[in-house]
Amino acid sequence: MDNRLHATTIIAVKRGNTTAIAGDGQVTLGNTVFKSSARKIRRIFDDRIMVGFAGSVADAQTLCDKFESKVRESNGILKRAVIEFAKEWRSDKILRNFEAMMIVADKDYLLVLSGNGEVLEPDEGIAAIGSGGMFAAAAAKALVRNTELDPLTIVKESMKA
Predict the structure, then answer these.
(1) Which is it for strands 27-29 and 32-35: parallel, antiparallel or unpaired?
(2) Secondary structure element (H or E) that encloses residue 5, with its range
(3) pTM for this structure?
(4) Is 8 one of the annotated active-site residues of the chain?
(5) CA atoms within a 13 Å half-sphere pointing along the CA-CB vector of 76
(6) Domains (range + CATH), the chain
(7) C-alpha dihedral, 146 to 150 to 156 to 157, nearest 10°
């Protein structure tokens, strides 16, 4: 019997001018891992913006597509796109019922977006979402505070938590 915790995890770390994001690819159906190779991280706008999402797969894919259109409308200005997207997500009758969270990042910003219109910029350059996110965030914080590891190594190690 496998007693390991199965939890969706997306983790991002920004350190200096470098940002890395990682995800587990898990799709769960109840307490069962139904699929472990889902694509929950995307690069958009000529690979200048990274998006990671957790929650209902169909909802997250739809939200990611809508977010990408806001990025295009704002000519790649992430903060402007995020604010416009959050307004729409919060006010649209259909979108506001979607169950998902997103992490978005470019060379300047690392932000977390939630369905109730929150846009959060983490203090320590660490963002994590999904049911396993807090485990990965705790590991990332320890590595950021106590090592000089690069963001890619930190997110890879944090996914093992």
Answers:
(1) antiparallel
(2) none
(3) 0.88
(4) yes
(5) 11
(6) 10-156 (3.60.20.10)
(7) -20
